[in-house]
Design goal:
This protein is of the alpha/beta class. The chain is 57% helix and 10% strand. The strands form seven sheets. Strands 6-5-7-2-8-14-1-15 form an eight-stranded parallel beta sheet. The N and C termini lie far apart (120 Å).
Amino acid sequence: AFGASAKDSDAEFFSPTCHESVLAELSKAKQQVDEALKMHDAWKSDASPTSSSPRSRIMGARLADEGMNRSPNKGVEKVESAPMVSADVIEAIEAVALERRAMELEWEARRKADQDQAMASERRALELEAEARRKAQEEQAKLSKQLLQQYESLVKSKEEELKARERELAEKAKELQQSWEIRMAEKEELLAQREAEVAHDLERFVQEKDEEYQRLIAEKAAELAAKETELEAELARDLERQVCEKDRELQRRLEEHQAELAAREAELETEAQNQWRLAVEMKNKADLDLIRKLGAATLELTAHKEQAEQVKCVFNNLPPLQLAMEGGDMGALDRELAKWDKSVGVDGDGGAVVQAVVNLARERLQAWKGVEVTFKEVLREVEHLPTSNTELTRRCHKLFRALKDAQLTKMDLCRSCPQATERMCQVLLTWQERTMLHSNPVQRLIIKRVVTCPNLGPFDFPDLDVCLRLVDRSGNSGELFLNRALALVEREKSHPKEFRPLLQHLETMLFFLKHTKSECIMLTHKEFQKQAHPLHPAAADCLAYATKRYVPGAELVCVSKHDNLHDVKAVLEEIRAPSLARPDDPLRHFRDIFYHWALAMQQKFNVLALPHHTQMICLLAFQRFLQMDPTQQTPHTLLAQVGTGEGKSMIVAALAIYVVVALGKKAHIVIDDETLLERDFWDFKSLFDIFEVHAPDKPGKKRHISAVLCASEERLAANKDKQACIVARVDPDADICYCEAKHVQSYYAGIARGRRNFGGYAEQVLIVDEVDALIIDQEPNEAFVYPNAELSRMATAVAEAMARADHAAIQAIQSDAHPAAKRVVSEMAGEWEQGKSLKAHRDFVFAKEAQRYCALQSGRANPNIWSLALECRNFQDGMSKHIKFQERLFVMSRPRVFQKYHRIIGVTGSIGSGPERDFIQRTYRAAFFEVPPFLTTCRGCPFHEPLPVRVGSLRQPVYVEPTSQEQLRRIAEVALAARERVPVLVIARDRGHVEEVLAHLRDAARLRGLGSAAEDIVRSLSRTLCESDPMQWKDNLNCSTLPLGDREGTAKTWRVTVTDPRGGRGTDYRVDDPDVDKQGGLLLIPALVPPTSREWTQFLGRTARQDRRGQFSAILCSDDYAALASKLGAPLPRTGGVEVISSILRWNELELKERIQGSAALYNCGLRMNELCEELFSRRTDLLDDAATRERLVDVCQRMRWMTVREIEAAFSQLPGFDPTRVATQARDLGAPEKRVARRSPIGSVAIPLGSGMPRAAAPTERAMIFCLDRSCSMMSQDTGTAMSRFATCSACVHRILQKQVHNGDAVGFVGFGSRVETFAPLTVKASGRRSLESTLAALKPEVAGGTCFFDAVATCLRLLKDARQQSKWLVCLTDGDDLGSRPENSRGQMVTKFLAERQLSDLNMIMITVGRLKSQTVQLINSWVGQVVAAGGVGKHMSEQDAAAIASAFEVVAECLAAEVGGATEC
């Protein structure tokens, strides 16, 4: 059986994989056979041969059967005991054993044969392989040998050929040299012979000519001598004859003259005697007159001497009076004025000067006394300090306001009222001790410095509160901070307005210094590897370069070596030393930069300032990028994503210095926020001034880096010190220029219009702070217009013809042969009508400096903006007699302006969404990398991100309400519940939504029983409040994260602050309370999801700042996203999770992607236009002199939006000698951006409006205008920046308006208010009552008594205007304080509000000017009045001026409004 099974499975059984198992089975079977044989031997010896009992046969047969039927795998089992076994059984057993042994031997033989065969085959294969390998090696060696021999032979042959060639060349060179020498010798010999021949011939020729000249000269001399002799004889004869004749004539005349002299002598003698007698008489008379005049002169001189002595005495007494006024000492001023008696004065001009000074002193003394009364009244209120800290804070706020009011009048309280000053200091110190947690000497010193400061400027009570809270820490935990803060406050040069930024900067520096020793370079490397998006190979290479060179031991300072990092001097030495020892150090330039920066910070704060590891790696990555050779394969732009508060400004400044010093290029830094731009520039200006570069015009010498700041026109006007570093445009010679994106584009425009040298960008690097400036998803192009004098004259002629309705003249101009004639007439026809429809104060204003209408830009007149429609309007209204015609000749692509820079580098808080990244990457060939937060690179330091929190009745992090009312209800529910634990910040949709949320939250707070405290609990931080009342805005910001009420209570509650999207970025909401951190941090409630993920990141950055926690819960309105959801066909998720925000951001990304794609064709067309225009203006300017060529170029610039890139190139190819295919391009042809639309009036068939459409001379509309002026005592303040008081400035401004802007047919009235309302001049027509109006205005003076009946005065003016017959009515009001004294029924302006709401007065225009800080309720009320006027179709303005120096500029705006309406521009 075993053999059969083996034979049946030969192939499988004897396979190599089964050998081991088969051997094991065979070994077991062999053991069983051995045991069976042993049993057989035992049975054989014990059994009897004669035994054959039935039992034995049966047992034997059974045993045999069992033995035969057993499986060969199991073998033969041992039989313990058996009776007799028959011989047959034994034979069978032996046969089985023999057969098994035979099979075993057979299998063993077969196995060995197979193994031998396999081994032989394998051996043979190995031998064959080895033989083949040996042969291959031999062949290869043989072939290599042959190739080597061939190569050697070839080399030898080539060498021999080269040597032979060299020999031939040498022989040829030698032969050439010899032949050249022979030829040169022959040439020299020929030249010598030729020179000798020429010299001989020349000598012979000269000799012959000399002989000929000598002969001719002799002949001519003989002839001349003969002629001279003849002439001399003839002249002698003539002269003798003439002398005789003259002698006779003279003799005759002499005799006649002697006779005349004798007669005249007799006459003169007689006349002389008469004159002598007359002279004696006159002399006697003159002597008498002289004696009388000398007597009178002596008397007059005596009188003048006496008067001069009096004037001298008077003027000697004026300086003490002026000194008392300037010093602000009320007592000294009172004493000096007492010396002046009204009866004692000086006559003449000197008397007028003295009287003016004395009057000014008396007015100032009156104002100071009024301030003293007010100040003492406020001090009486705090004579008994209230027990409530809230009430104490309110009174201190009022006291501080009184102090500021005193300073506005230039009164020095420390000199005038030293006791009051001391009392104020005591009150503020008491408030500080009761409201601050850790009263300390720094806080007391701050209060003392503030109270004794003579001019606090913009420093307000909220600033004082913030400064005190910044240093509100105990000596144990903040000893270092308090020591440094004390030194800052003690510094005499530190003004109180600098305390807050200095202390905040100090706090930030110490925060980073605290974690400096926890920084780990290897952990920083690891964090840099966690990039959220795949890196561009170039960006990866830059980071690899940075991490390879910035390793442990290569950092600026090894902080582990320094036990005390506050030993700044030792650390500075370590920063400086490696730079001197290793000039090839890749950190060399950055060591120098940060050494000087640390030195500056040490001198200013006495604190060590070191860069983070993340900053250094980021800078090294940028260094590597700037060192790369610019090619099409490498990126042109590298941007780093750096979080808020991670030191972006320092990175930008260090990069700028590196670009200038190391690369020798110029740096343009773009920051699209004017406030941040100015802050960063002044922070690092002193650092820039330290570094030097080589002066190209002075070899071997160096000059300091020049850094400039591009500022707005308003900022330039306010630059009283005329600092040279503040400029209006990018300075091409400046090394570092801080500017906005508009300045970069203006710089390019200046090149295109001026010198037209576009090659300078190769030496300039653009550094951007935030990528906003690079993302252009709307209009990517801008057309430049150039003036054309010839077409301007033609346009003026067209305008004159239109004004006369002369159709024939217009047709004649249109038929002119000039290529642009039809276009000029066509454009003038359309823009003439467009000019009529322009509206004043919306489209243009009257600019007094230019004496014409100018376009409005950002609310101000910009004379640099040109518009043909506005030119027509100026011509129509008589503001100009000429039309300035300009034509489009150049198209600028905004992205291409940035692309022209050598490189673009920058940092940004967020690179943006997917479409924005794709746009930047595609347009600017950009690469990106992310810089990890500082705290993630520090061991054991907490780093928190804003977390969604489940709040409200549904316990959701995100709510989507169906209506705006439901949204307001949910915001109130969540915010008022959360304020029990943490401060709450609500971000509304816009300014208007802020007011809605404020009103609803306050109403909800009152319903919860909070009553009047609702105004304090819910506060506004809108941009409107910031513009109208900056002091209140600062106070609200300060209180937004402070606990509500007194500090004595155990349970803390917080405020709810409502802001607009502007407050969602760039505003720091400081949270110091550890209890807030335990509750999750500041709660952010956005009422909208912004359009981009970058703005959403900014929103979330308002919470979870530094090592603090943060949380957010979005409460949205589905109506805001209904249109977007309908367009995309995707409903807004209702899950209540953050996926709602993700969905909206994704939708916004799709919208942004669509906008970017929609402008792609326009971008490419503009890009190609820019490339071709640049080539034309820089290299082919001759083409611009031809009128026909210019017309073709204008046509292309105007039709660009309806042309493809190919069509643009075809159009440029029509220009003579211009080949656009030679101009390289990056533009792609994506088709025409827009479909062609018909023009208003096609060229060739111009529809000229005639008849009724033509302007006619019309009398200006008669107007009634009332000037309502504040006459309270505060208007006597001398704080306008001039010698005039507030009221005198107002009077002068109104007088100028009356003279220049008021028409003769207008009616003018004057109303004044103080403690009461008075109508000083009813509405009087200027033509008949001009002198009366001027005298009334000149006689107006401020009151001494208190009170400001502002609301009653406005109501009175409205009633007067209601009764006026004039069509247009104007009310101009000015006040410098809140209403105090109006009737009870009008105490909150109810009468005015009702009057305006009922529209009792049609065609009303209202301009309100407020000076100083007014209550927020007053400001809101005035804004509502102005809003109602605007809604009714009138002109409404509220100009809130914090500084009295701006009164004159506010009245200039009034003048612009009135002057514009005189020209008829208010017609809709």
